[in-house]
């Protein structure tokens, strides 16, 4: 099939210009109010200020069980010198309106929540009294006002207790109920139509054909709309078909806003752009913004309703949604603009950025002896996990190409506050470490884990920025793992072995039943036998180069970055063999010829060895239950 020429529609403008054009045609005001039952008001946004029509409490109230008195009548009372008062004939349970006055020398029995009688100004707790026929002996003096809540002390009639624009949590709902309100006036929720486009996009729950992708964008945008006080209207996954897309868009325009993702960057097949371009009043206001991630975002307004095409890549979709549409939804919902919290930090490593685009770099924050360190978490625009695991992001200006290690940066937090962690793990990812982390979390230890590879982990440990770094680094000079790379300030805690070997599809006669050396000889003699390589610098790559002894067979140039990527390439027949660990080979149903064990150990800064969570980590790692579990996962534990 001939490749079609791709035309470009993008005309890139700055972020601020895009926002200005978008807002020029939108009224950032609430959509209207509605009255709803109080029990249905959780999460809704108040449309009007709430002024108290009553006092709470509505009367002077006793806070204890005891006797209502005039404080003066109790003065001087002690254990050995009681004051005796005569009792009125009433007993003031809550809800009873007192009939008798309390004058000096008189007391009335009163319960917690009872209404204070005329004349009384204090309540003596029953514990400090002895009552007998018609009298009460007071053993402790009271001061005026003691154990009494006066009318209106909690809420005074006429007071503004809640303000328009406030989101109602259980606490505010309690206040409204105390004021006797069964109904409340709230802003109408903006209804936001959401769909995803792309023939490869499959709704979660359905089977996933090879090459297809689950629809994560609609799910995250729909949940984000709810967080912003809106109501998502899910229109599903729409195939790449102009009529179907137009129909979805038309349906979406019954709502207050429309947002969908995918098919906005490229020309041919860029149906998303084409259907939105058919809108008028005014239609598309920006297509292409000098942002990374998010360049191909398309902003349109029609008849006062925003219509946004988000880039298909999940990180780009979420960022552009929050950048352009989220503030509009908040305003429609009657919420005030969001104030993002900032934290000062330092970059631990050098960053390259793209000139000409403002870059938002997602980071994980780690406390250090002198402030915070901001670790880039980027797995690229296509990642779905970065946004959920990052603490915040830094902004790199469009004219900056390099940010040096050690540069101070401002981190905008994604959440309301920084999640504290007890144990910080930075290094190479391993399912064995996942298991250990899970056990520690069950013990109540809060873990922050960042996968930056073995070398990144070792550097973090050297800088004292993590509690432990999981590493598997071979010293090329000695062939020994991990230990030769330590400095005096670091301790090595023995982890476990991971058997590395040749992975191939079961039944492949070129490998079946052979030793590693034989298999290599057969594979290298067959020019159609394609390998998948690993990235330079990885321990596995050193092993591959040793096995190949200078040969560069087909596929040598394909340098994947993980054991999983190697296994997937072989399983999906893009390659016939590669080197990976046996736990991964098993996960993908591949056959395995063992070659050499690599050591996955933990580097711990000595200064952190005495920390309780670190001790708990080491104790767990060395426990028989953990060793058993790691063995069951396929690791070698001595
Ligand atoms: N030649 C050029 N290619 C690309 C450019 C460019 O300027 N010139 N821009 C790149 C940038 S930047 C981005 S961002 C992406 C965005 O592309 P599209 O918005 O057209 O999105 P798709 O191609 O449809 O999908 C991209 C990617 O995301 C996956 N996807 C799509 N929808 C979903 C969903 N609902 N849930 C999960 N994942 C989704 C899709 O399968 C693709 O893998 O374009 C670059 N290319
Ligand atoms: O703008 Mo795209 O989101 O850089 O990857």
Automatic annotation (TrEMBL):
Keyword Hydrolase found: no
Pfam families: MoCF_biosynth, MoeA_C, MoeA_N, PBP_like
InterPro entries hit by this protein: MoaB/Mog-like_dom_sf (IPR036425), MoaB/Mog_dom (IPR001453), MoCF_biosynth_CS (IPR008284), MoeA-like (IPR038987), MoeA_C_domain_IV (IPR005111), MoeA_C_domain_IV_sf (IPR036688), MoeA_linker/N (IPR005110), MoeA_linker/N_sf (IPR036135)
Cofactors that this protein relies on: Mg(2+)
Pathway participation: Cofactor biosynthesis; molybdopterin biosynthesis
Top-level EC class: transferase
E.C. number: 2.10.1.1
Domain MoaB/Mog: start-end pairs: 193-331
Annotated keywords: Magnesium, Metal-binding, Molybdenum, Molybdenum cofactor biosynthesis, Transferase
Swiss-Prot/TrEMBL catalytic activity: adenylyl-molybdopterin + molybdate = Mo-molybdopterin + AMP + H(+)
SUPFAM superfamilies: MoeA C-terminal domain-like (SSF63867), MoeA N-terminal region -like (SSF63882), Molybdenum cofactor biosynthesis proteins (SSF53218), Periplasmic binding protein-like II (SSF53850)
Function of the molecule: Catalyzes the insertion of molybdate into adenylated molybdopterin with the concomitant release of AMP.
Protein family per UniProt: Belongs to the MoeA family.
Protein name in the entry: Molybdopterin molybdenumtransferase
């Amino acid at each position: 099939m001939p490749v079609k020429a791709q035309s470009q529609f993008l005309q890139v403008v700055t972020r601020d210009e895009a926002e200005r054009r978008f807002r020029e045609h939108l009224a950032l005001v609430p959509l209207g109010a509605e009255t709803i039952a109080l029990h249905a008001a959780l999460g809704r946004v108040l449309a009007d200020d709430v002024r108290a029509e009553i006092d709470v409490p509505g009367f002077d109230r006793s806070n204890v069980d005891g006797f209502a008195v005039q404080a003066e009548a109790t003065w001087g009372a002690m254990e050995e010198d009681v004051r005796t008062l005569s009792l009125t004939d009433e007993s003031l349970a809550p809800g009873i309106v007192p009939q008798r006055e309390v004058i000096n020398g008189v007391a009335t029995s009163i319960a917690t929540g009872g209404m204070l009688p005329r004349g009384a100004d204090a309540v003596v707790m029953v514990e400090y009294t002895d009552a007998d026929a018609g009298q009460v002996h007071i053993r402790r003096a009271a001061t005026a006002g003691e154990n009494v809540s006066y009318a209106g002390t909690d809420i005074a009639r006429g007071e503004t207790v809640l303000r328009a624009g406030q989101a109602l949590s259980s606490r505010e709902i309690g206040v409204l109920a105390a004021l006797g309100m069964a109904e409340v006036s709230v802003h109408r929720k903006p209804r936001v139509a959401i769909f995803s486009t792309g023939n490869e996009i499959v709704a979660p729950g359905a089977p996933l054909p090879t090459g297809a992708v689950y629809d994560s964008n609609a799910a995250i945008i729909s949940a984000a709309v709810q967080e912003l006080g809106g109501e998502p209207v899910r229109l599903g996954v729409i195939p790449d078909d102009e009529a179907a897309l137009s129909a979805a868009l038309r349906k979406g325009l019954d709502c207050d806003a429309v947002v969908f993702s995918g098919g906005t960057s490229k020309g041919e097949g860029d149906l998303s752009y084409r259907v939105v371009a058919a809108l008028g009043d005014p239609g598309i206001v920006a297509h292409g913004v000098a942002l990374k991630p998010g360049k191909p975002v398309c902003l349109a307004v029609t008849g006062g309703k925003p219509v946004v095409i988000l880039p298909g890549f999940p990180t780009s979709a979420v960022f552009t949604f929050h950048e352009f549409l989220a503030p509009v939804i908040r305003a429609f919902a009657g919420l005030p603009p969001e104030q993002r919290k900032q934290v000062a930090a330092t970059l631990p490593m050098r960053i390259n950025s793209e000139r000409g685009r403002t870059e938002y770099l997602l980071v994980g924050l780690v406390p250090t002896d002198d402030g915070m360190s901001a670790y880039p978490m980027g797995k690229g625009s296509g990642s779905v996990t970065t946004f959920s695991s990052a603490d915040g992001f830094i902004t790199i200006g469009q004219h900056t190409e390099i940010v040096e290690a050690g540069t101070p940066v401002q981190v905008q937090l994604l959440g309301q506050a920084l999640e504290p962690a007890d144990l910080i793990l930075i290094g190479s990812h391993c399912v064995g470490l996942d298991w250990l982390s899970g056990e520690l979390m069950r013990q109540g230890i809060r873990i922050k884990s960042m996968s930056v590879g073995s070398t990144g982990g070792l550097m973090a440990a050297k800088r004292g920025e993590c509690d432990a770094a999981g590493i598997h680094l071979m010293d090329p000079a000695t062939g020994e793992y991990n230990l030769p790379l330590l400095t005096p300030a670091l301790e090595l805690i023995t982890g476990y072995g991971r058997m590395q070997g040749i992975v191939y599809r079961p039944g492949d006669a070129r490998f079946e039943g052979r030793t590693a050396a034989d298999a290599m000889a057969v594979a290298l003699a067959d020019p159609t036998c394609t390998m998948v390589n690993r990235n330079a610098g990885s321990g596995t790559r050193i092993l591959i180069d040793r096995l190949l002894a200078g040969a560069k067979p087909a596929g040598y140039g394909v340098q994947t970055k993980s054991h999983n990527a190697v296994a997937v390439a072989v399983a999906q027949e893009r390659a016939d063999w590669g080197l990976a660990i046996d736990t991964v080979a098993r996960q993908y149903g591949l056959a395995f010829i063992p070659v050499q064990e690599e050591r996955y150990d933990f580097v711990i800064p000595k200064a952190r060895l005495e920390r309780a969570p670190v001790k708990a980590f080491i104790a767990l790692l060395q426990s028989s239950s953990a060793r058993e579990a790691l063995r069951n996962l396929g690791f070698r534990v001595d």
